[in-house]
Amino acid sequence: MPFTDFGVDELGDYRPESTIPQDFDEFWQRTLTEARTHGGAVKAERVTAQYGLRTVEVDDVRFPGWNGEPVAAWLLRPRGAAGPLPVVVTYIGYSGGRGLPTEHLLWSAAGYAQLVVDSRGQGHDTPDRTAGDGTQWVGGFMTQGIDSPESYYYRRLMTDCVRAVDAVAELPGLDADRIVVAGGSQGGGLALAVAGLTGDRVAAVMPDVPFLCHYREAARISLDGPYQELVNYLRWHSRHRVQPAFATLDYFDGVNFAQRATAPALFSVGLMDPVCPPRTVYAAFNHYAGEDRTMTVWPFADHAGGCGSNPPVQLSWLRERGLAPEL
Amino acid sequence: MPFTDFGVDELGDYRPESTIPQDFDEFWQRTLTEARTHGGAVKAERVTAQYGLRTVEVDDVRFPGWNGEPVAAWLLRPRGAAGPLPVVVTYIGYSGGRGLPTEHLLWSAAGYAQLVVDSRGQGHDTPDRTAGDGTQWVGGFMTQGIDSPESYYYRRLMTDCVRAVDAVAELPGLDADRIVVAGGSQGGGLALAVAGLTGDRVAAVMPDVPFLCHYREAARISLDGPYQELVNYLRWHSRHRVQPAFATLDYFDGVNFAQRATAPALFSVGLMDPVCPPRTVYAAFNHYAGEDRTMTVWPFADHAGGCGSNPPVQLSWLRERGLAPEL
Amino acid sequence: MPFTDFGVDELGDYRPESTIPQDFDEFWQRTLTEARTHGGAVKAERVTAQYGLRTVEVDDVRFPGWNGEPVAAWLLRPRGAAGPLPVVVTYIGYSGGRGLPTEHLLWSAAGYAQLVVDSRGQGHDTPDRTAGDGTQWVGGFMTQGIDSPESYYYRRLMTDCVRAVDAVAELPGLDADRIVVAGGSQGGGLALAVAGLTGDRVAAVMPDVPFLCHYREAARISLDGPYQELVNYLRWHSRHRVQPAFATLDYFDGVNFAQRATAPALFSVGLMDPVCPPRTVYAAFNHYAGEDRTMTVWPFADHAGGCGSNPPVQLSWLRERGLAPEL
Amino acid sequence: MPFTDFGVDELGDYRPESTIPQDFDEFWQRTLTEARTHGGAVKAERVTAQYGLRTVEVDDVRFPGWNGEPVAAWLLRPRGAAGPLPVVVTYIGYSGGRGLPTEHLLWSAAGYAQLVVDSRGQGHDTPDRTAGDGTQWVGGFMTQGIDSPESYYYRRLMTDCVRAVDAVAELPGLDADRIVVAGGSQGGGLALAVAGLTGDRVAAVMPDVPFLCHYREAARISLDGPYQELVNYLRWHSRHRVQPAFATLDYFDGVNFAQRATAPALFSVGLMDPVCPPRTVYAAFNHYAGEDRTMTVWPFADHAGGCGSNPPVQLSWLRERGLAPEL
Amino acid sequence: MPFTDFGVDELGDYRPESTIPQDFDEFWQRTLTEARTHGGAVKAERVTAQYGLRTVEVDDVRFPGWNGEPVAAWLLRPRGAAGPLPVVVTYIGYSGGRGLPTEHLLWSAAGYAQLVVDSRGQGHDTPDRTAGDGTQWVGGFMTQGIDSPESYYYRRLMTDCVRAVDAVAELPGLDADRIVVAGGSQGGGLALAVAGLTGDRVAAVMPDVPFLCHYREAARISLDGPYQELVNYLRWHSRHRVQPAFATLDYFDGVNFAQRATAPALFSVGLMDPVCPPRTVYAAFNHYAGEDRTMTVWPFADHAGGCGSNPPVQLSWLRERGLAPEL
Amino acid sequence: MPFTDFGVDELGDYRPESTIPQDFDEFWQRTLTEARTHGGAVKAERVTAQYGLRTVEVDDVRFPGWNGEPVAAWLLRPRGAAGPLPVVVTYIGYSGGRGLPTEHLLWSAAGYAQLVVDSRGQGHDTPDRTAGDGTQWVGGFMTQGIDSPESYYYRRLMTDCVRAVDAVAELPGLDADRIVVAGGSQGGGLALAVAGLTGDRVAAVMPDVPFLCHYREAARISLDGPYQELVNYLRWHSRHRVQPAFATLDYFDGVNFAQRATAPALFSVGLMDPVCPPRTVYAAFNHYAGEDRTMTVWPFADHAGGCGSNPPVQLSWLRERGLAPEL
Fold first, then answer.
1. B228, closest residue in chain A (CA to CA)
2. Within an 8 Å CB–CB cutoff, is residue C111 touching chain B?
3. F35-46: per-residue pLDDT in tens?
4. What ipTM does the predicted assembly reach?
């Protein structure tokens, strides 16, 4: 596999014209206000024992998301930790949900709390549009409801993700001044959206090989992965009227959220990523409004990015910014 | 590409054990009754001129489907034809909708009326679950709501398809005694479902390379196409608890509908079809309850089946059964 | 799949240097004169009934082509239409022939006559070089006889295509002042050739995603499809003496025919076309001599171009130019 | 890549029913008689110097083939060899010609004469049907003229190949009692045809991974290579009338030639060959009429067979049969 | 992707003939004795702080392996745990090493100690044959030294893996009566080898989708992954003398180790695994000598097996056998 | 397949910055001196008879290579030739060894002597690091020992290749003033290395589609072949510390050897080569220090380059430089 995009120098200078809709802020303010109006309690049930864990305490959480609907999450923290703990809110990649707590052991091992947020429809425990229990479907989210920003799937999911940050304040033992939002691929795009929509309420954002950025170019150059659902849509359904779809997507573009985000940011990118081509990541990074921003470049990585080498980079970066848990 | 399945001899004998759920008939009776309870009028608007057609009369139809929601369809017929005309109700392949009337010119040229039924969510004009106007999404339908027969996507779509047959009676100039249901791939699976659910109300069924048949084997052996969404679901979401998904699918399996269907049937199959492997088609065909059933075998065809060679076969077969329009 | 070529802006400016051979006009004048010298009658046999069609009248036509050899065609027109009708002469894509009349129902439904021209050797009914009846072969045409313009396969096929226009005058009920030549892929390349070779005898040309254009670049950048036969030839047979092959191809290049063509032209292109890369289409379009030329851009389309969305564009465009049939 | 066919045990027993047409022998007798009627001289020109060779003497040969047309060949022999020498007549793989003498140095180095026969149309120096000089085309031969045994391409090429054996008698210094016919892939199929058509005039035949055998199965199971041209033909052109094509091919099937061949035979096969699947090779081998037959099995080989390991096997095998040149 | 092998029923009965060499036990006894003769101390250095971990204590271990050479390992355990702890000795997949401790957090979180063993040559910290520091190479191990069991790469690596079990006794706080050996893919094959070579010294073995089993079939049917290196070797280097390679491999085959292993065993398999086809896993499982053996079947899984769903299965299975840590 | 790189014009100007390490010359002088210190005799055994050759005399040679270890080679020459003969020293492509003498018949047929040098580890007859007899392994050489120039695999292999030139002087009947070094792919990279390390001791160098050149770009843009082993190493093992690997490779880069080489040079390149992309070949060519350098461009060739058309080009080029054998 060859490099999938420009070289690093060109990427560093890549800053495509902004496409923020005029009513972008209004749209999101309205959307979030509406969601918050529904209120609803955050619930947590201790489930450590059933997963056989000893050093970690696990709660099965439900918090109110879009339309007040209950969104599932795992809360993990070091057993016996005296709070308040810094907390990493983690979002999940495309076509997957929160999975099992045993899949998320890094942050609690490092002394952090972690809230792992389910993705509606994509996971087992959070139906989209009250369609029944359980996992719902594989694929299709990328274009679901794309005719209008009002009905687009990611309006609902991104609202859930912001409400996850709201939920942190309701959970005991967490330090609401040290909320970090993070995730890889779709999770990275969602973290970026949350950073743009919550301003200084999050202390840091760490999007890894983020998806959901710079759709216009992503549709033109991505080689694999869920942007291809968009390409198929434009090929078979929109054909020569492609602007309406992009007009919807402008409300959900990481490049636009980046222009509203101010928290310290640690991005990562793989220069051989066929799914989220480097320029789409750099477009968000180079537009990022916060001054403290860092890009970890994995030069020969595909969409797996830095894999097991990435967590140490993130742990150091958070420590340098005073966000690590006390000893 | 090699043959994707058994040879023709083995296929002719292939008759897997039936997996009809005990409450299969009750489930569908309840579902259809519920849909019909909503009532609602069938509406048709003449749109011939805007498509520049001269020999064909085109109506843009809306009929009440699942939950009474309006389902789009095109009605095409030879201009100036004296009715009542035999009518071919056509269902569409996966991830597409009714498209434009200019894409459906065969049956009216041959003197039939044709009702081309949109697929909710998949096409531009029939939203699923009132999610807004326009086309909705690409992919994902195969597993949407699969946790239960109640919430499964195809419950709604198949109901629409049965209601299309109901709608024929409401449309002037059509002969309700000569309703043929037909389609290729997903359209073939839907036609088979309708044949199984409407009994002798349809005069013939013509499923070409039908999808939505014999899911258990399809998941094991298909090489490409939308059964792969099911495979991905079973791989990533269900893992070693795969029976619940198959239990849902039993309510929507062409092999089961075939056991309830009695109309004369003309199937087709491609022996190199990687999407709908031959045994899945033969499983439905060999279980078909009606005595008058024919299989057109295209020995070296892939999922395109007989392409342009298929219509003459269908035209002859219908004529032999007295279903052709009068001169 | 990513974009396969430049962006639209660069394509609009792409105008490679002309490579018309000095004796290009002389070569074709000589070739066509020779073919016409053979004379021969145009024959038509009414076959509507055997294809079960009601609104369309179909004739099975044989007209004299290269070397006076009989070339098969279908003539379709609205049943009972009072002529003279505008006529769309349609050429066929690579490795296929005229097929069945039921595959060509658009133009007659819209009130036009249509002449569907078989491709010698590629179809069932027109042998190349009197090799016997029936279909002859799959593939290989691209380089057959490439050593010299005299023996190159497309010399014979393009001559047939011009002679199809000649034949229109011999067929009753057609309006020789409203001849439109059209086709997709190879059919588009042939339509362009005919437009260049017949001057103002054709009233319009509509090449969709045309093949047979700008061979030098096509050989360098196409990813799939029959230009690969040329690449294989140059790789295995010509090796470092590639100029002679290109010198032959210059006599058959849509870019060169475009410089001789003056009829109003409606091209189409898919920006993700791996078979006929956009720049090869734009090279012909930007060199097109006629002033009334339009490009329909399907931004995310592959070689399928605009599919079912294209006919309405063509119907409108013809209507605007006064070429539509009278009501 | 996995094994492409049965295991060795099943292959050893694989003996499909014979499909020799009733008039097979009459067809070939007539065809060869007709060709020989044309007569014509064998011409040879010494060209050693221009290829810079020192130990080999090279002649550029033309001998009369089908229809008396001149077929090109290279004759190589050890410089200064006292004849008469045993001679290996070599046929070439699909879509290639005799190439250059420097590509054929094995047999002369081992003391044999070698006659390398060009394939009409496929090579640079032997046009098919007098279509002009030079190489002609890439691909398409597999189905060219397939409508009838009379017009099928391989009728002409196989006649050339038999006439090459006739030509040996006309060339000085060769031992007509020690003619070995050989080749790989298409060359192997041609060698087998010649063995079947010349009886005891050839002293041995060595078909490596032979093509042109057992078309019915080859079309069903081959994964790659020129049998795919046949599959495409059957898919797109013949559709459900596939028997006529197979009826033509029966006249050109290595399985049928094998039943007429008696010379000692050394076959080879690769058990992972995706182009010429093992059972198609074994079908010919197991039907081979001569008693002295050997199969070299290369268990993990693809269509490259034994590559550089094969010549020593052949040299030994010939030596054991007294066919090696004297010291 | 379709099922890559037999159905589950046939797999349950699949028990290929044993190919254990006569001197198998002698070979391994000699090899291990020789390695142990070198002696050497086990060293451990506390490195928890530099990886930023809080709930886990990490030691960087070096223990003496083949030829007494130092082999790297990570030892992880719950911070502050009172020993002695049950310990899971983990081996790594092909072309990777022990990586970072942050990649191995499951077992310590569940209260176990874990020893993660580097693979010589494949990882960063354990050179093979003292070739210098650092990672050494990617690929090639499968056939390195395959000419003889003495020189084969896996002789050295498997010896290291047995010596890792020896090392457990030297490390404080571990319970030598509760040693579990485990791993996925190559790691599973190594765990099986260790189980066969250490008898009742290990309390359980958990091979997931194990590699290094039943080479004769693996070479014939695997579709992807490192068995292809063996296929390439047999294709290009051994050709028709393939038995010597298999004779070497018999000393390193999981099917043979299984016949010597008695510890309770928990295997897993994916029925769509293209890398380690199901029958190769079942061959070892069905030959497994211990009576307490369980197969976890993931019916639609590829080589990723049960992924995140597998650990809970393993945790329960160990708990049921009294191997879980005390609360 | 499209062009894999720049057009010819840009390639002609492509001259990347030099990356020769400061101690490059010292490193190689030390390495070669060390190897020569070991001394050792060149041995040759006559084996002509066992390969059944008549016009060629073959010796099985062992000469001392790196660490004085015996390296296998074939020496072929025209039987009965009066020396001293010009000699072509040939190196072999990746993952293969010297094979059999019957695979190397060109140069002796043209009157030259040829020394075919085995590649340690890659062939059957030259173990790397005294690991036992026979072939050793497939793949992995590209990164073996890459941590340091001292331990890198190619340090040993390139030393063998230089020592092959030393060995020529020890073999009777060869003309040490007419030594040509040559090879394709890896063999071309090795020939270039030897040309750079032996200065005017070689009379000419002929690298065809050379591998082992310009690693930094090769890793970024190659699409297939052994540079992918480097990419995998950088992706999975080095991640964001990729400079150390490139620092090692600088000692083994054809671009750097080219700057030290002065013999007349005949390169070749395929503009569609996915394995050794054109710019990597031109980088060496454009940096080549000798003034007499020629590039044979095969415009549509993949990694097979000019195949059978290349030898005549090389024979002419050598003749023009007075390096051909006397008549």
1. A138
2. yes
3. 999 989 999 999
4. 0.95
